[in-house]
Amino acid sequence: NKPVTTSFIRKKKEEGTPITMITAYDYPTAKLVEEAGVDMILVGDSLGMVVLGYDSTVPVTMEDMIHHTKAVTRAAKTSFVVADLPFLSYHGTVEEAVKNAGRLMQEGLAKAVKMEGGSELVPIVTRCVQAGIPVVGHIGLTPQAVHQLGGYKVQGRDIEAAKKLLEDAYALQEAGAFAIVLECVPEEVAAHIASKLDIPIIGIGAGVRCDGQVLVFHDLVGYASQLAPKFVKRYTDVGEQIHAAVRSYMEEVEGRRFPATEHVFHANQETIQELYG
Ligand code: KIV
Ligand code: NA
Question: Known binder of ligand: residue 114?
C-alpha cells in the first residue's frame, strides 16, 4: 500500500469520501490499525489518560509524546501518523513551539503535529508550515483546557460560540493547517463548518457530516477505558476477552494443567539418569 499523504487526505474531502483516524500509542496497536487500513493514526495526548492513568491530558510531557510516537512510527509505514503537542509545549515563544513540533517529527518520526486552539495559534501554525511541518488544528472541546472549560462539555451550542468556532477554523486554514479536529460540538454546527472549509474537518462527537471521524482506540475496543462519553461507540469488548483469558490461565496454573506436554522441554537421558537414578 502507498503511504497516505496530506494531498491524499485533502483529495478524500474533495471526493466526499470519509477519512478514518484512530489513536494508537504503541507498536502492536499501530500495527493492527494500520493492517486494518486506517488513513491516519493519531498519537493523542489522550495517552495520558488511557495508557498512563492520569485524570486528564495536562500532565503529559514532550518526552511522553516522543516515546510513544517512536513506538507507533516503528509499526506504521502506510497510515499517516499525527502526534499531539502536549500541554504548554506550544504556549511560550513561537521558536519554542516550532522546536517542539520539530522534535515530534525528527525524534518521533511523526508526519504531522496537532495542537489545540483557534486564531491565537496563527503565528505558530504559520511558522510550523513554513518550516515544513504539516499541522492539524483542534477546536471545540480542547481537553488540555479542561480546567478552564470546567469539564468535558459540548462546545459551540449558542450562535456566538458557533460563529467563533467557524472563525477559528478559517484562521487555522488560512495559516496553513491541512486538517482540523472538531471535538464535541452540535452536529449542525460541525456540518456547517465542514461545508464552509476547504480542508478536512475530522469530527469526534461532532456528527456524521464531518469529512472524517476520529476515536480513541481504547474506547472503541473497550480496552479498560474509563466511563466513555456519549459520542463514543464501543465496537467490541476486548476487556471481557482479556478477563476471560487471564481467568483461564489462573485456573490452569492453579490446577497444574498449564504448562501441558506441548509447552515443556526435556533433558537428555543421561541427565535424567543422573538426576533421578
Ligand atoms: O488525544 C486525543 O486522542 C485527541 C483526539 C480525541 C482527537 O486529541
Ligand atoms: Na489530544
Answer: yes
Q: What is the CA radius of gyration of the chain?
A: 23
Residue 225 Cβ inside 6 Å of ligand 1? The answer reads: no
Same domain, 232 and 246: no
212 vs 189: CA distance, rounded Å: 15
Q: Which of 183, 240, 254, 262 is catalytic?
A: 183
Residue 211 predicted with pLDDT over 80? yes
Q: Same domain for 112 and 139?
A: yes
Total domain count, the chain: 2
Same-domain check for residues 57 and 20: yes
Residue 14, φ and ψ in degrees, nearest 5: -60, -35
Mean pLDDT value of segment 219-236 = 91
Examine residue 1 and state whether it is found in any structural domain, yes or no: no
Find cell 469488548 and name the residue: 237
- What CATH number is given to the structural domain containing 116? 3.20.20.60
84 is in an annotated binding site: yes
Contact 89, 136 (CB under 8 A): no
